[in-house]
Design goal:
The structure is a single chain. By secondary structure, this protein is α/β, with parallel strands linked by helices. The chain has a single domain, classed as Creatininase (Rossmann fold, 3-Layer(aba) Sandwich). Helix content is about 35%, strand content about 5%. The chain has 6 helices and 4 strands. Helix 4 packs across helix 6. The N terminus is likely disordered.
């Protein structure tokens, strides 16, 4: 099946009205809809990106998927499992167990009126928790899944990829004059030190990668690719 082209210019917070559940009233909700729940974090993203970068990316990807599928986008879960960033002021993490309970209870509530529920996750630290929660919920008989928004093709955190995405999604919140490279080593090389001491132990500015050369145009292409990937996963 050929999927229609994605209008990425529509994937801005100002334009996400037709798929956004929060602004509607109950008679507007269709019967047994697909509900997409963005999952992100409130965590440092270097000196140049906002704390809710992951949440903004997850919401944009979910909106792109809803534009094609006719689903509804729920308000994002903005608090996640971000303990590795806790040494940086402003980071707010609820940890794995609290996130798991929120996901489980949210699906149990959604199941009274929704059809399929899909969590669209843009923070890697949430992935193991989402996998555990979804496994439990599937065992309870719920039609639920989770999908990743992969942003690590170029760098790991607050580098070229995420900076480009935010320049496309919310350019007014990107402080390019502060952008600087962080630790550019591969994850396998820095993981032991990061597991022991958090991101601050391997990158004083909180960046894992290099934002140099980031652009809104590249961010648009990355967003299109992520939406394509999620649509293919859901079709399978």
């Amino acid at each position: 099946m050929t999927t229609p082209a994605l209008d990425t210019q529509a994937l801005t917070p100002q334009a996400l009205t037709t798929q956004a559940l929060a602004g509607q009233a109950w008679p507007d909700v269709p019967e047994q809809p697909l509900v997409l729940v963005p999952v992100g974090s409130i965590e440092q993203h270097g000196p140049h990106l906002p704390f809710d970068t992951d949440s903004a990316i997850a919401a944009a990807v979910a909106a792109g998927v809803a534009e094609r599928s006719g689903g509804l986008v729920a308000p994002p879960l903005v608090y996640g499992n971000s303990g590795e960033h806790q040494s940086f002021p402003g980071t707010m993490s609820i940890g794995a167990e609290a996130l798991r309970l929120v996901v489980v209870e949210l699906v149990r509530s959604l199941a009274t009126w929704a059809g399929r529920v899909v969590f669209v996750n843009a923070h890697g630290g949430n992935a193991p928790t989402l996998a555990d929660a979804v496994k439990q919920l599937v065992g309870e008989g719920h039609d639920v899944a989770w999908v990743p928004c992969a942003t690590e093709e170029v760098d790991l955190h607050a580098g070229h990829t995420e900076t480009s995405l935010m320049l496309h999604i919310r350019p007014g919140d990107v402080r390019l004059e502060r952008a600087a490279a962080g630790n550019t080593a591969p994850l396998a090389e820095i993981l032991p030190a990061m597991m022991a001491g958090g991101v601050g132990a391997v990158s004083p500015n909180g960046v894992l990668g290099d934002p140099a050369g980031a652009s809104a145009e590249h961010g648009r292409h990355v967003l299109e690719a992520m939406v394509d990937d999620v649509v293919r996963r859901l079709d399978r």
